[in-house]
Amino acid sequence: MPALIECHSLTKKYGSRLALNNVNLSIERGRIVGLLGPNASGKTTLIKLINGLIQPSQGEILINGQEPGIESKLNISYLPDACFLPEWMKVRELFNYYSDFYSNFNLRKAYDMLERLNLNDSMKLKSMSKGTKEKIQLILTMSREADLYCLDEPIGGVDPASRDYILDTIIGNYNENSTILISTHLITDIEKILDEVVFINNGCMYLHKSVDDIRMEHNNSVDGFFREVFRC
Amino acid sequence: MSWELTNDRPIYMQLMDYIKLGIISGQYPAGSKLPSVRELASIAAVNPNTMQKALAELESTGLIYSNRTSGRFVTDNEELIHENKKNLAKDYCNDFFIKLKSLGITQAEILELISECMNE
Q: Which residue of B lies nearest to A164 if distances are taken between CA atoms?
């Protein structure tokens, strides 16, 4: 079986600016992977390439051995970093919307998660706080039975208690056939739920290693190590 | 509540210490069944693969064993548990003495302080 994500000399240019430069990367199934890097390092560009939203300038990216396309879009559940849902919809309508779009949307799972948050399905997106909106988006994303979950900054706008809920949701949904890729710069909060981390900097691959190997080799947390490496 | 983890050591080693402490203190009694990897990972708020690794490493110490069909169990070897308890207590004592010695307190003073504390 091919690796879940495979990048060969992957390069993306926006005009003359190199957003990703010759990235080689292989990510297996059953992992929770942190995609880490300073601002403007190319995290979101990589995630967009994985989702087939933009095309590589050079090199290739393969999902399950195939180029991103209709097939891969069914198997990847993507949480973008900005709100993308119609504001006027109620939670119930959003759930149905997702059921219509994705054959692998698990409605029961979505309602279970909603219940745990003490939210109800008649709330309108428009009337929600930023944090609650993020939670609804996470529920929609994690309720799909996918091979790969791509979460772009899933904990940016929520309070620490909700952060714990989100991390718990991610651990609870983990299974050995799917991989969760989380892009963030809030490393401390998510470090302990990660198997491995991918550091990118200025569009280049800096490091791809397991969290405990980094701790073992540097006697430091991944967060501490990151601060050391990318000190301004 | 999740388990407190420090920054200077691999996570799986710290998880091993926590589970070992649970066994020594009787939270997980000798011969009893341990919660599943998933449950333990959720309690500790860590990655299930990391918890899996911690449990596999603990198996090699003999403190826990796995039964192919019914999960993981604490050893019923009370002697082994007691031995681990003694070693841990020794470690605590060593830390304690190192701290007090770094304050410049003599052995005689330490003994005096201990008996004072015990009478309180």
A: B45
